[in-house]
Specification:
It is a single chain. With 496 residues, the chain is of the alpha+beta class. 38% of the residues lie in helices and 20% in strands. The longest helix has 20 residues. 33% of the residues are buried.
């Protein structure tokens, strides 16, 4: 009797994200310098953000407001009392040799957000809550540009741009509740949606205003203890986050199974080679020698002020999705698409307010209108000459059978490019739908007479040719014949 092979060990990943969100304030967190992106190097600096002797930081109150509102949107507990700390490290992009951040008393803690994994084909969604450990305010560092290489290693020289130094950031740290690259990418996307709905950040990863670091370890399924944590940096898209995590999971599992020791380190994601590479051994909090920032007083959020900011929160993406599904009858997928961008959601709701049914409005926005916007990348939905009330009018013309769907698609390019009244265009071009049975029957007779071969084939059993004859009617009428009625009348004639 041969011994059976040992069961293969199953592993699970334990993943948490540290996300830095650049706030879209006009000025920096502790000074009056502009936060504008893309300006010439070292033109948006001042004595405060450069840490020159004798200067004192002053907190930008808009940063505190944005931090509290984000904390509320993430279901966090807002601290009535918090403070700033100095995080000390020595690197050329840090002009003061310390970063003003928050350590033991952050502005917000113990929150959560809900992610949604949608099955497009089924139109259903799986939802999961991801815990938020903390949210705190801090200043950004400058930017190093390496000559001769993308990294410090291998470069022949480095340049420093301090424009970004002092730009306000929120650092949002998740609980280790994420289990896959897909969940991590969805978490980051949902966080960006929330930030954009709040109006506190544009969340543009390509400009560095949303940066995600991943902490990941693996462990045998069922084990409570965490494995050795590895940090991954340098991911500039949601797709890159997912792929980097998937690669790292495979790398760590392979290491465990071959007896290789996993060390706590920071690794970089290489987009070109689609792999992670070692960067440095990971620092601990003790390495930063935190102590309270002596130049800034404590932060206190009065209960009355907290309620004012809470009342100013908009309806958030998850709330909209739920409402669209329960009240409007949209599928999980349609609700997701309609709420992905706040401007699209506002446009959609304006179309509904003008009297259009929800499903039809969603179909037009997700279909032809989205395709037009994709082909005209500089345009947003708010730029369209086709106003919500005009789209509602177009849908109404289809619903009351004034025009066919085909006729609507015929005039849509003009509406998208120039706007105007669909009803007026229909009247101008004579596109009204033909619903008179007698007139349609006369034209059907003509079509049958013009296609004797196909008529004979149909009557010999090739019944799929019904669609051919309906198509000929559409061609004859320029798409103006009532499709449903035409189908019925053509079938009657063919089977007479």
């Amino acid at each position: 009797m041969t011994a059976s092979a040992p069961a293969k060990t199953q592993y699970e990943a334990v993943i948490g994200l540290e996300t830095h969100c650049q706030l879209n304030t006009a000025t920096k967190i502790f000074s009056m310098s502009s936060t504008k992106f893309g300006e010439p190097p070292n033109t948006l600096i001042d004595p405060v953000c450069m840490g020159l002797p004798g200067t004192l930081p002053v907190l930008n109150q808009k940063v505190l407001e944005y931090a509290v509102k984000t904390g509320l949107a993430l279901n966090c507990q807002i601290a009535p009392y918090s403070k700033f700390d100095r995080k000390q490290y020595f690197y050329p992009d840090l002009p003061k040799n310390y970063q003003i951040s928050q350590y033991d008393l952050p502005i917000a803690e113990h929150g959560w957000l809900e992610i949604e994994l949608v099955d497009k084909d089924a139109g259903t969604a799986t939802r999961k809550r991801i815990g938020i450990t903390r949210l705190h305010m801090e200043e950004d560092a400058g930017k190093l540009v390496h000559g001769g290489s993308d990294r410090l290693a291998g470069s022949t020289y480095s340049l420093v741009d301090y424009n970004r130094a002092g730009v306000p950031l929120l650092e949002i740290v998740s609980e280790p509740d994420i289990r896959s690259g897909q969940e991590a990418a969805e978490y980051a996307q949902e966080l960006r949606r929330i930030l954009r709905y709040l109006g506190v950040s544009d969340g543009n990863m390509q400009e560095g205003s949303l940066r995600c670091d991943v902490n990941i370890s693996v462990r045998p399924m069922g084990q409570k203890e965490f494995g050795t944590k590895v940090e991954i940096k340098n991911m500039n898209s949601f797709n890159a986050i997912q792929r980097a995590i998937e690669y790292e999971i495979e790398r760590q599992i392979a290491a465990v199974e071959t007896g290789e020791r996993i060390i706590q380190e920071t690794r970089l994601w290489e987009e070109g080679s689609q792999r992670t590479i070692s960067m440095r051994v990971k620092e601990g909090s003790s390495d930063y020698r935190y102590f309270p920032e002596p130049d800034l007083g404590p932060i206190e959020v009065a209960p009355a002020q907290l309620e004012v900011w809470r009342a100013q929160l908009p309806e958030l993406p998850a709330q909209k999705r739920q409402r669209y599904e329960t009240e409007l009858g949209l599928s999980a997928y349609d609700a997701r698409v309609m709420t992905n961008d706040q401007a699209i959601a506002a446009y959609f709701e304006a179309v509904l307010a003008a009297g259009a049914p929800a499903k039809q409005a969603a179909n037009w926005i997700m279909g032809d209108i989205s395709a037009y916007l994709n082909n005209n990348a500089t345009l947003t939905i708010t730029d369209l000459p086709l106003k919500p009330e005009n789209l509602a009018e177009l849908i109404s013309l289809i619903e009351d059978r004034t025009i066919s769907n085909a006729a609507a698609k015929t005039i849509l390019p003009e509406l998208l490019a120039e706007g105007g009244s669909p009803q007026a265009i229909v009247a101008r071009d004579g596109l009204g739908q033909i619903s008179d049975a007698a007139a349609l029957l006369a034209m059907i007779d003509e079509v049958l007479a013009e296609n004797p071969k196909e008529l004979e084939q149909y009557r010999n059993g090739k019944t799929k040719l019904l669609g051919f004859f309906v198509g000929q009617m559409m061609k004859k009428t320029g798409g103006r014949c009532d499709p449903k009625l035409t189908n019925q009348l053509v079938a009657q004639k063919l089977n007479a």
